[in-house]
Amino acid sequence: MSAPDDLPTIVALSSAAGRAGVAVVRLSGSRVRFVIETIAGNLPSARRASLRTLRDPTGEAIDQALVLYFPGPASFTGEDVAELHIHGARSVLARLLQVLCDLPGIRLAEPGEFTRRAFEAGKLDLSEVEGLIDLIDSETEWQRRQALRQMDGALGIAAANWRRALIEAMALLEAEIDFSDEADVTGPLIERALATAGDVLGQLREALGGFARGERIREGFVVVLAGPPNAGKSSLLNALARRDVAIVSPIAGTTRDAIEVRLDLAGLPVTLIDTAGLRDSTDPIEAEGVGRARALAEKADLVLSLRSIDSDPDRLHGGEGVIALATKVDLAGLARPGEVAVSAQTGQGIPELLTLMAERLAGQGVVEPALLTRERHRVAVGQAIDALERAGSGRHDHAELLAEDLRLAVRALERLLGRVDIEDVLDQLFAGFCIGK
Ligand SMILES: Nc1nc2c(ncn2[C@@H]2O[C@H](COP(=O)(O)OP(=O)(O)OP(=O)(O)O)[C@@H](O)[C@H]2O)c(=O)[nH]1
Ligand SMILES: [Mg+2]
Q: How far is CA 250 from CA 119, 247, 253, 290, in A?
């Protein structure tokens, strides 16, 4: 890593692009002081909003702005940082960036470059960077809570604690190895080391248990509407989306292509997919639609299996990962036990259905956001668990073998923390960032 003085000072629009009341332009680097003195006349007090007229080198005004100066190292990136709160006009932004980039040693930031500098200065660990990305991308309440928790360091702190406990256990093993000639796997120090490792193992398993939910919350759940033609799938999609998305008609076989809508379901991100009515069809296009419907239902996190309440309840349509629905309850007919009765027309049963869907997806009574949210986390924790399971299996006849397993577990946790093997992860992560973050 090069010294801050070698790095160019970077600038970017940090708020969303486009016309707005206010836009925030952020700068970071060793030339921030010089930049502010040049365009704003003088440097405002640290961390206090000050009104300034920003001027180009000829002295012509660009805009009036609130200028904030955050001297390093107590700043987001650890370098000197400034924020210019300008009027959110394209013309102001264009002129300001032009003037700034004409100054020596200043260039536009690359995507994620502010955060990358924060990471390299040790201001954020890898899981906090991931949390920050997820927070910026979050659309629903559960996504926001989960991302904020990770950005606050929940995963980093847990991983650091697990690591510290295992390193202590390793020290106990080393002591035993040094003191006993036999280096066998009994003795009070080894007992204590194994107890600690067992403790960490339990916590890792618990964290891994929440992974599926954490990942789904980050990426979104898939819910598929399935059932025979005319069961009311498209009508229910429109009712749940509260928009007229899919074509509804009394003709059986209306929907052929899968139709997707994104929903915020009690804070959970859900993609709801309407599909072609399931039946044997000689029409090749409809048959293709039916094939796609079955494939989608296979992969879904949850299937809503519909039948019209006035149809023959001939088919069992419940099961794991399935909510059985009797639709059109405004018509005559009886719902069977286990079926949720709804009407897209009157709205009857829809609130109950939404609650049930949220419970099925998030897990009933779950209040704590998950710690593990990415495949990278699952892999690292899985490796630590494997190593600790080997250590606890009792099949080692030498304390040094135990110590080696603990070392592997520590290494996996360090990967989770971003302390080792990090370059690929970083490049991938920061490529997903937008400019100005
Ligand atoms: N009375 C009543 N009619 C409904 C209700 N929901 C849907 N329908 C009617 O049932 C017929 C079929 O509705 P769709 O939503 O197109 O059914 P679908 O399952 O999407 O049908 P396909 O796309 O052909 O598979 C239409 O005439 C709707 O108006 C309801 O809650 N009550
Ligand atoms: Mg339809």
A: 58, 10, 9, 18
> Does 55 lie in the same domain as 98?
yes
Q: In what order do the strands lie in the sheet with 61-70?
A: 50-55, 61-70, 81-88, 20-28, 9-13, 106-108
Cα(279) to ligand 2 centroid in Å equals 13
Q: What is the pLDDT of residues 162-214, one digit of tens each?
A: 999 999 999 888 887 777 665 566 777 888 989 999 999 999 999 999 999 99
Summarize pLDDT for 249-270 with one digit per residue, the tens: 999 999 999 999 999 998 999 9
Radius of gyration of the chain (CA): 29
Domain CATH code at residue 410: 1.20.120.430
Whether 95 and 169 share a structural domain: no
pLDDT surpasses 80 at 5: no
Closest atom, ligand 1, to C-alpha of 227: 19
Domain assignment of residue 246, yes or no = yes
Domain containing 389 equals 154-210+372-433
Whether 225 and 344 share a structural domain: yes
Q: How far is the CA of 94 from the centre of ligand 1 (A)?
A: 53
What would the pLDDT profile of 132-167 be if each residue is shown by its tens digit?
999 999 999 999 999 999 999 999 999 999 999 999
Does residue 301 form part of some domain? yes
Say whether both 295 and 416 belong to one domain.
no
Q: Is 248 in the pocket of ligand 1 (CB under 6 A)?
A: yes
Q: Which helix (H) or strand (E) holds 22?
A: strand 20-28
Q: pTM of this prediction?
A: 0.83
Ligand 1 atom closest to 327 (CA): 31
